[in-house]
Amino acid sequence: MPEPIMTILVIDDEPMVRESLASCLEDQGYVVLLAPDGCQGFEICCRQRPSLVFTDLRMPVMDGFEVVERLTRELPEIPIVAMSGVGDVGEAIRAIRLGAWAYITKPITNLDEITITIARVLERARLVRENLEYRHRLEQLVEERTRQLKESEQRFYQFFFQHDDAIILCRLPELVILDANPASSKLFGYPYQEILARKFPFFFATAEQGDLIAGLTHLTGESFFLREHLPAKDCADAELIVSLKAWSITLGNETVLYCSLRNATEKIMLEKQLQDSQTRLIQAHKLASIGMLASGIAHEINNPNNLIAFNTDLLAEVWRDSLPVLADYSHVHPGFTLGGLPFGEVPATADRLFKGLADGSRRIDAIVGQLKQYSRPCAAGGAGGCDINRAVTSAVTLLDHQIKRITDRFELELAPNLPPVRGYSQQIEQVLINLISNALQALPGRERGIVVSTARDGDRGGGVITIADEGRGMTRETLAHLTEPFFSTRHESGGTGLGLSISDSILREHGGTLCFESEEGKGTRAIIHLPPCVVQGQGAIP
Questions:
Q1: Has residue 157 been placed in a domain?
Q2: pLDDT in tens, 242-280
Q3: Which of 101, 197, 321, 509 could form a disulfide with 79 if both were Cys (CB 3.0 to 4.6 A apart)?
């Protein structure tokens, strides 16, 4: 059966806030009810019983504090999220004491906060309902036991053994394990008899055992113990994250501790992967912003550079036309100088200066061209394949200043007649810039060198790019984690640990691979394999 649609009531006297929050919630698939004040909101709660209530605290007619107090007293199963202005901590504390389940500040600028708050409150409501259901069921079993003890025990143990969650019964206050269901053996990996030989805290991390013992041994009456992310360990000492719910129950004439455990390891891993993906998305936005900035800078540089190139050519012509006149003058005045130089040295010096201006202008033009190309969207290229020699040359051009600042020995070895490879030139250039930058940062001095080479991939039919440096090298342990997100040996100098992870992802999306060979003190080789470009309906481009 499909999950029921959740209904959320928004109570706020400000129409703009009310409608804005409603729109956000509707976009997330919730049915939204609206109320302009606490009185109408309470009436809607009584009629329609929403799944969740968002209420402002400062409102006319009936303020949010009274709404929280009345709902907590008369409809305690409805979760309440209080809302008020930034800095009103006292109001938040008062609302929580009156029964609010959570508190968010206005204005609401982070939609993720709403999503996380709703998920957390609804999960808590689910746990509370589940806990109440368990308690209610156990109370029914106890009542039934007064009439038919044997039948009651059979029903309880049927539930106990068939439940998907691990359930462990302990004696209080020693926390000695009295019984465990099959799911407990599955969770911790111990046979049933070995579980019975333990005390309950044994299965948890040493740092947690003190708080666990204190919390569980003091459970009385209707109180319960709840921990959502509790570190534990299985029989192989592998780390687990479990959700623990525990309360005391009466079985026969004995009060025992009922502990229900659910494996939350996979959930935590998925949450971490989501956080990693969000971080990568932020980094991608940063790179896009840098691309836009590079495009703007390239445009601004291009105009004055064109003026330099034009004026250089014009000045060179003026100089050539003036040279005979100056030569005649120098014959009449033998000591004639220009710019402090004897006239005999001026022609060669001027030619060298004009050539330097022209070469410098052409170099600026080449760098500007590379910046423009680098900042263009990927979709503009790549459909017809990528020339890896051109990609390498472009990356080196952009890094030329950094290369000359760090090393005196930088070599390019580009194999001729390489086949086009599959992918987008801009993305491959991004990978090369990152790898060459890393190689430069690994060099201990200017005398150490880097060789960037290309070759045909004989086995796969594509291309191979190798960046070999004479840097410090890496250990096997570092190599094993090199492409993991956020892993970096340069955190103290600003490294984010995302460059190689993103580069590896880009190459895998191109069907290629990135591998590293390294030895401490002897440098590192980064090797890129890229598949050949394939035209639809044909084989690889020769």
A1: no
A2: 888 898 888 767 888 888 888 887 777 777 777 767 766
A3: 101
CB 294 within 8 A of CB 375: yes
Residue 289 forms part of a structural domain = no
Which amino acid is located at 504 in the chain?
D
Q: Report pLDDT digits (tens) over 357-409.
A: 877 777 777 666 656 655 555 543 444 578 888 888 888 887 888 888 888 88
Q: How many CB atoms lie within 10 A of CB 39?
A: 16
Question: Both tokens of residue 285?
Answer: 């936005």
174 with 261, same domain: the answer is yes
Q: Does one domain contain both 390 and 362?
A: no
How confident is the model over 473-497, as a mean pLDDT? 62
Nearest 5°: phi and psi at 463? -130, 155
What are 459's two structure tokens? 């086995």
Quote the CA–CA distance of 121 and 82 in Å, as a whole number: 12
Q: 14 and 121, same structural domain?
A: yes
Sign of CA dihedral 95, 97, 99, 100: positive
> Among 180, 146, 187, 140, which Cα is nearest to 160's?
180
What's the mean per-residue pLDDT of the chain?
80
**Whether 19 and 95 share a structural domain:** yes
Residue 277 lies in a domain: no
Lowest mean pLDDT among 114-128, 270-284, 401-415, 453-467: 270-284
* Alpha-carbon span 19 to 32, nearest angstrom: 10
Look up the domain containing 398 and give its range. Answer: 385-530
